[in-house]
Amino acid sequence: MDPRAISKIKERLEASKSPVALTGAGVSAESGVPTFRGPNGLWKTYKPEDLATPEAFERDPFLVWEWYNFRREKIASVSPNPAHEALARLEASKPSFTLITQNVDGLHCLAGSRNVLEIHGSIWNLRCVECGNSSENRDVPIGILPRCACGGLLRPGVVWFGESLPEDIMNAAFEAAEKADFMMVVGTSGVVQPAASLASVAKRAGAFTVEINTDSTPLSDIMDERVEGRAGEILPVLVTA
Ligand code: OAD
């Protein structure tokens, strides 16, 4: 960690009136939740078109539920790590802080974050494909194939490839990015839209932009500062107890 970069980021964060963080799978990696891309990423072993599209669910809901059950079991067995905890502390000390996450694992909330914009949904929500009713369900494993009170099939309440993101949540995320004076982008490969564009929106609006990642990404070039390393080691240094 470059101490000059760290103290500059800390200064900007402390002075910030409307800080925003965008997080991705890298934030949960140190908890033991697999990321999607990279050498051990889920998309190396599994094909998104077989498991994470509305067409896949229509074709083979059993297979899709098997995969989501496997992921729910994995997530249920892990705990938030110091990166999640640091972001929860940030919210407690700066109520204007907005946390936007692409993660569906719910670990930010488990760490104590209250205002989380889960733009890709939550693996703990189920939605009826018939009546659209949505409810929380933390059963692990969940009976295959779960059904709604109306008789319709329940699906994971996550956003799949080819689907639109929840409009109200996305509007809130873009509004926060437009108003941000500080934006940190943590543990995301920055290749999935529209999430990735939130960083450029904040940058154009004049925010000080920071990337925390073990690797460089397509977003690295627009960042004012980058700290290369693990989120669970860097965030606790930026947001001290
Ligand atoms: P990815 O798996 O694409 O990227 C994870 C990023 O985290 C990579 O850039 C890694 O370098 C970085 N990383 C890994 N471990 C880290 C650590 N300990 N600390 C900091 N950084 C670390 O995950 P996302 O960018 O979140 O969408 O993926 C975006 C979306 O693609 C997901 O929400 C999911 C997926 O398909 C849907 O399912 C709709």
Detailed description of the structure:
The chain is 39% helix and 18% strand. By secondary structure, it is an alpha/beta fold. The protein folds into two domains: 1-33 and 79-120 and 165-241, TPP-binding domain (Rossmann fold), CATH 3.40.50.1220; 34-77 and 122-158, SIR2/SIRT2 'Small Domain', CATH 3.30.1600. The strands form two sheets. The protein has a six-stranded parallel beta sheet with strand order 3-2-1-7-8-9, sandwiched between helices. α7 (82-93) runs parallel beside α11. The model has no long low-confidence stretch (mean pLDDT 96). The chain binds 2'-O-acetyl adenosine-5-diphosphoribose (OAD). 2'-O-acetyl adenosine-5-diphosphoribose is lined by residues 24-26, 29-30, 35-38, 41, 52, 102, 120, 159, 187-189, 192, 212-215, 217, 230-231. Residues 24-26, 29-30, 35-38, 41, 52, 102, 120, 159, 187-189, 192, 212-215, 217, 230-231 line the site of 2'-O-acetyl adenosine-5-diphosphoribose (OAD).
